[in-house]
Write a structure and sequence with these properties.
Oligomer: single chain
Structural class: alpha+beta
Strand order of the largest sheet: 2-1-5-4-3
Distance between the termini: 83 Å
Number of helices: 17
Largest sheet: 5 strands, antiparallel
Helix content: 40-55%
Radius of gyration: 62 Å
C-alpha cells in the first residue's frame, strides 16, 4: 500500500499533524496535572501550616487531655468536602479527626506510616497514595505536619488527606477531549491529504495505466490534460511521446517485417549468435540445412550445436584464432556441403555484440566441380587409351611390320577398332552436348511401345543368345501409344538391354516388361546379373561413372550411355530409376507419358 505515492502524500500530511497534536496534548496534560496537583499541595500546606491549624493545636499542653477541645477546633475549621484532618499523638493514636473520617483510632492502620514517622521526627511530608475501597480506587494527596510545643518538642502530628478523584477525572476528561480533537484533526488531515494527493496522483495513475497498456502493445492511448501545471505538462509530454513512438514503431515494424521476410525467404542460411554464445536468430533455411529444431536452438548453446558439424566454427575457436572475427569454413553434413562465412556485428557504440554466420549450400556446385574434374580426367583417359594404341601400332608398322602382311593386317584392324572407339566417344559427347544445350533435333510422333519393344528385343536377341542368356518380352497390352522420338527411345532401350546382357552371367534371365498405368507407360528391364552396390546407384547416370571401371572398360563402352539415356527420357518428360542389390540382379524402370 505504501508503495503508492498517494499514501505517501497522506502520510506526509498525517505525520506532522499527529506529532504536533501529540506533543501539544502531552504538554497541556502535564501542565494541567502539575498545576492542579500543585494547587492542592499548596492549599493543604497553607491550610495546615501557614493558616495556623498547627499553631492552634500546639497551644494545648497535652493533646490527649485536650482531645475534646481539639475535636471542636477541627470541626469548626473551614475545610472542603474532599479534605480530611487527623490529629495524631506520638503513639500514633488518633485523638481528633474531621467529620466522616472513620472510627479507627489506630493511625498506622488508616494513615501512611512513613509520613507519620517523618512528622514525628520533625519533618513535613507529602505523598500521593491510592486507597482501595470495595467499589473503586481513590487517589489522595497526603501531608503530615509535626506539632511542636514551645520548646520545639514534638508532641503530635497533624495529618491532612485530600481526595484527588475530581482532579484526575478532570484530567481524564481533558485527555479525552484532546484525544478526540486529535482524532478529528487527523481525520480531517487524512481526508484533505487524500483529496490533495488524489488531485496529484490521479493524472499520474492515468499515465501509469496507459503506459502499462502501451507496454502490452496497445499504443492508442491518450491522457487527458486537465491543468497547465507540471502534471498537465507530464500528460502533454506523454501524448507527444506516444505519437512519436507510434511513428517510430511503425517504421521499425515495417523494417522488421521487411527484414524478416528477407531472412525467411533468402536462399542462404543465417545464424546470429551473441557474445554469451546464445543463438538469437536462425532463419528457416539454416534450420533446414543443419536439421535443427526450434527447441534445440532455445535449449542448447551455439558451441554445443556447432561442434557436431565443425569445431572450427565454435565461438571459442573463432575468438582464439581469428582476432577480427571474420573467416570462412566448410561443413560436410548429411551428403551436403555448406560454405559458412562469418563476421562480427556491432552495436551503436561500435562494440562487438555477436557473430553472424551465413551458410551457403554449395553441394551442387561442389558436385559439379568434382564432376567437371572427373569428366575432364575421364575424357582425357578415354581419348588417350585409343590414341596410345593407334600411335604404338602405327609406329610398329612404320618400323617394318608392313612387310609382314599378316601382322600388318592385324595391326591395322586394331587401329581401325580404336578409331571406331574414338568415333563412338566423340559421337556420344556431341550428343550429350546437344542434349545439354537443347540443340538435339527431335522427331516426335505417335509410337506404339508394344511394337517398339518387340522389335528392339528381337534385335538384341542374338547378343543374348551368344551369351546363352534368355531375353524375353512380356506385356498384357495390345497397344500402348505415346508421342515420342522412336529412334531415341529405341537407343535408350538398346543401351539398357546391352548393359543387362554385359553384366548378366551365362544362363541368366533378362525380362522386358511393359505396363500401362493411367496415362503412363512403364517399361521394366529386369536381370538376375551381378547387381549394383547401393552406394553406386545414385551416381549411375553421371557421365563416365562406372561401378567397376576396369571391368567396364574390358567389356567396351564409353561410360556415357546411361547419361544419354537419362537425358533422352527427361526430354520426353519421363523418368528413369534403378533398383538393385549387389549380387541379386538389377531392375531399370522407365516411365513415359502417353499423351504429348
Amino acid at each position: 500500500m505504501f508503495k503508492s505515492i498517494r499514501w505517501k502524500f497522506i502520510t506526509i500530511y498525517f505525520l506532522p499533524v499527529y506529532i504536533a497534536m501529540l506533543i501539544v496534548g502531552v504538554f497541556i496534560i502535564q501542565e494541567f496535572q502539575e498545576y492542579h496537583l500543585g494547587t492542592v499541595s499548596e492549599n493543604l500546606t497553607n491550610f495546615g501550616n501557614r493558616e495556623g491549624l498547627v499553631q492552634t493545636i500546639s497551644q494545648f499542653d497535652s493533646l490527649d487531655e485536650s482531645k475534646e477541645e481539639i475535636q471542636k477546633n477541627i470541626e469548626q475549621w473551614p475545610t472542603g468536602l474532599k479534605e480530611e484532618i487527623f490529629v495524631v499523638n506520638r503513639d500514633f493514636k488518633i485523638i481528633a479527626r474531621s467529620k466522616n473520617s472513620g472510627t479507627n483510632d489506630n493511625a498506622i492502620e488508616v494513615l501512611d506510616y512513613t509520613l507519620l514517622t517523618d512528622a514525628r521526627n520533625g519533618q513535613e511530608g507529602e505523598k500521593d497514595i491510592i486507597i482501595n475501597t470495595t467499589t473503586r480506587q481513590i487517589t489522595t494527596k497526603n501531608m503530615a505536619f509535626p506539632i511542636q510545643n514551645k520548646d520545639e518538642c514534638i508532641k503530635g502530628i497533624l495529618y491532612i488527606r485530600a481526595d484527588l478523584s475530581d482532579i484526575y477525572k478532570t484530567l481524564d476528561k481533558s485527555k479525552m477531549i484532546l484525544t478526540q480533537a486529535t482524532l478529528l484533526a487527523l481525520v480531517i488531515t487524512v481526508v484533505l491529504g487524500f483529496w490533495i494527493a488524489r488531485s496529484i496522483t490521479e493524472p499520474i495513475t492515468d499515465v501509469t495505466v496507459k503506459a502499462a497498456r502501451m507496454a502490452k502493445g496497445d499504443f492508442n492511448q491518450v491522457v487527458e490534460v486537465k491543468s497547465d501545471d507540471e502534471i498537465g505538462q507530464l500528460a502533454e509530454m506523454f501524448n507527444y511521446a506516444r505519437e512519436k513512438l507510434n511513428i517510430t514503431l511503425s517504421e521499425i515494424s515495417s523494417e522488421k517485417s521487411k527484414l524478416e521476410t528477407i531472412l525467411s525467404y533468402m536462399a542462404d542460411g543465417l545464424i546470429a549468435v551473441n557474445n554469451e554464445g546464445k543463438i538469437i536468430h536462425a532463419n528457416p533455411t539454416a534450420m533446414k540445412m543443419l536439421h535443427l529444431s526450434e527447441k534445440e536452438i532455445q535449449k542448447k548453446s551455439y558451441d554445443d550445436l556447432m561442434k557436431v558439424y565443425n569445431e572450427k566454427l565454435m565461438i571459442s575457436y573463432i575468438e582464439e584464432n581469428s582476432p577480427d572475427g571474420v573467416g570462412s569454413e566448410m561443413i560436410e553434413f548429411s551428403h551436403s556441403t555448406f560454405q559458412v562465412n562469418y563476421a562480427p556485428f556491432k552495436d551503436e557504440k561500435g562494440e562487438k555484440t555477436g557473430i553472424v554466420m551465413v551458410l551457403q549450400d554449395i553441394t551442387e556446385r561442389h558436385k559439379l566441380d568434382n564432376m567437371r574434374k572427373e569428366f575432364v580426367a575421364n575424357v582425357s583417359h578415354e581419348l588417350k587409351t585409343p590414341l596410345t594404341s593407334i600411335k604404338s601400332y602405327t609406329e610398329t608398322l612404320l618400323d617394318g611390320a608392313l612387310d609382314n602382311r599378316d601382322i600388318a593386317e592385324h595391326f591395322l584392324n586394331v587401329v581401325n577398332s580404336e578409331a571406331d572407339r574414338m568415333n563412338r566417344l566423340v559421337r556420344d559427347l556431341l550428343q550429350l552436348s546437344r542434349l545439354d544445350y537443347r540443340r538435339e533435333s527431335w522427331n516426335k510422333q505417335e509410337v506404339d511401345l508394344v511394337k517398339l519393344l518387340e522389335n528392339t528385343v528381337l534385335k538384341m536377341y542374338i547378343n543374348a543368345k551368344n551369351k546363352q542368356q534368355n531375353l524375353d518380352f512380356k506385356t498384357r497390352e495390345q497397344s500402348v501409344i505415346g508421342l515420342m522420338d522412336q529412334d531415341k527411345i529405341e537407343q535408350v532401350i538398346i543401351n539398357i538391354i546391352s548393359n543387362a546382357i554385359k553384366y548378366t552371367p551365362k544362363d541368366g534371365m533378362i525380362n522386358v516388361i511393359l505396363e500401362e498405368e493411367e496415362d503412363k507407360g512403364i517399361i521394366r528391364i529386369i536381370d538376375n546379373g551381378i547387381g549394383i552396390p547401393q552406394k553406386d546407384i545414385p551416381r549411375l547416370f553421371e557421365r563416365f561413372y562406372r561401378v567397376d571401371k576396369a571391368r567396364s572398360r574390358e567389356m567396351g563402352g564409353t561410360g556415357l550411355g546411361l547419361s544419354i539415356a537419362h537425358q533422352i527420357i527427361k526430354a520426353h518428360n519421363g523418368d528413369v530409376h534403378v533398383k538393385s542389390k549387389d549380387g541379386e540382379g538389377t531392375e531399370v524402370i522407365i516411365t513415359l507419358p502417353l499423351k504429348g
